[in-house]
């Protein structure tokens, strides 16, 4: 489902956890910073940034307990099918159009939000809610999350 899941602190944007789907290239630090920066800029302007869609990806942000921001990056289309690696004779439509029956376009923000809820609850089970809401030692929390 998700190619990347990021966990950063809400106050400072310090990356706590990054998980990448096998076979996908990891996100660089500037990209992680930009994703958090967009969300932080919006929140400083009293705008609640929930999600956005690009040509190839859907990005969803969710804040938990005003201390943790989880970011999910989900492909909006199945790029293998869009590239027509598995073409069949039944399917001879325009190759530039995504194939809806083979794509991830049926994944909505609600699905990704539920995924982020589950990730947060997993982090709570792993470290405890108190540790996630009142981050005292970021380095120790990073180590615990690995």
TrEMBL record:
InterPro entries reported in the protein's UniProt record: FUZ/MON1/HPS1_longin_1, Fuzzy
Residue span, FUZ/MON1/HPS1 first Longin domain: 4-74
Region annotated Disordered, chain positions: 85-104
Pfam families associated with the record: Fuz_longin_1
Example of a GO biological process term: vesicle-mediated transport
Entries under PANTHER family matching the protein: INTRACELLULAR TRAFFIC PROTEIN-RELATED, PROTEIN FUZZY HOMOLOG
The protein's name: FUZ/MON1/HPS1 first Longin domain-containing protein
Originating species: Ciona savignyi
């Amino acid at each position: 489902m998700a190619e990347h899941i990021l966990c950063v602190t809400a106050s400072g944007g310090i990356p706590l956890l990054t998980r990448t789907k096998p076979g996908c290239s990891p996100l660089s630090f500037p990209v992680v910073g930009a994703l958090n920066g967009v969300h932080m800029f919006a929140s400083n302007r009293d705008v609640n940034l929930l999600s956005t869609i690009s040509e190839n990806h859907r990005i969803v942000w969710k804040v938990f307990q005003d201390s943790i921001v989880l970011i999910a990056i989900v492909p909006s289309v199945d790029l293998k099918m869009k590239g027509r690696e598995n073409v069949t004779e039944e399917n001879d439509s325009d190759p530039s159009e995504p194939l809806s029956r083979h794509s991830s376009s049926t994944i909505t923000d609600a699905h990704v939000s539920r995924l982020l809820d589950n990730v947060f609850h997993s982090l709570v089970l792993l470290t405890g809610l108190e540790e996630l809401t009142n981050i005292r030692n970021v380095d120790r929390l990073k180590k615990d999350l690995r």
